[in-house]
Amino acid sequence: MAVLSVDDLTVAYGEHTVFSDLSFTINDGDFLVVVGENGVGKTTLVKALLGELKPRSGSIDIPQSTKIGYVPQFRNLDEEYPLSVRDFVGLNSRKSNLPWLTKKERHDLDRMIKETDLTDIAQRPLGLASGGEKQRAYLAQALLPNPRLLILDESTASLDNEMKYNLLDLVTRFQENGLSVMFITHDWDLARHYGTRYLHLTSDGYATGSIDEIQNIEEGNE
Question: Which of 30, 83, 182, 212 is buried deepest, with most CB atoms within 10 A?
Fold first, then answer.
């Protein structure tokens, strides 16, 4: 079942068309990797999917049952950032107007902290966490509302190789419960290792298909 469908999508800034007639679908359990050089529209696509940009034409169909979690590429959090890891993750837990978390919200927050391996640093100020720990906190915050689709926008770009695989291994754990993933990346190794399908954006158009076909795309870029 589709969690998101894009049909003949065209997005432009003024007279500049970023991409046109783009079509693809993300189904339950997919791990779609979006690859392409800088400037081909990967971030623009994310903004369109999140409703931050209005397409010139085409359609984006997001079923009512599809809740989207989003982990952006950059967050400007310095060492003085005051919230603890737990409190930061909990920012995404409030479903009521109460100034405190309900019993269920506290339970769900504690469960997410545990499932994302943050228990030992839950009370540490987020500003003092390592890069990998911060990324896990960002991931936990995005996953807390139990989304059906998770969008990762270059979320491994600032991590060393081991941390990249650790973070995406963690993401795949949540896929066991039906989570679908859209992962924007420049890393072909990560794309092959985790992806089930790919979307390759270029200045001339796009290609999409099974991840088994991505070797041909790589060879074409050499």
Answer: 182
| CA-to-CA dists, residue 23 to 2, 109, 168, angstroms | 13, 36, 26
Half-sphere exposure of 180 (CA within 13 A, CB side): 21
Cα(172)–Cα(154) distance, rounded to whole angstroms? 16
Task: Copy the structure tokens of residue 154.
Answer: 């270059």
Q: Which residue has the tokens 């993933």?
A: 181
Task: Please tell me the pTM assigned to this model.
Answer: 0.91
Strand 149-153 to 68-71 pairing: parallel
CA distance 85 to 137: 6
What element of type H or E holds 42? helix 42-49
Q: Map tokens 């339970």 to a residue.
A: 107
Q: Give the three-state DSSP class for 130.
A: coil
Highest mean pLDDT among 18-27, 70-79, 211-220: 18-27
pLDDT tens-digit readout, 131-167? 899 999 999 999 999 999 999 999 998 899 999 999 9
Contact call for residues 84 and 125 (beta carbons, < 8 A): yes
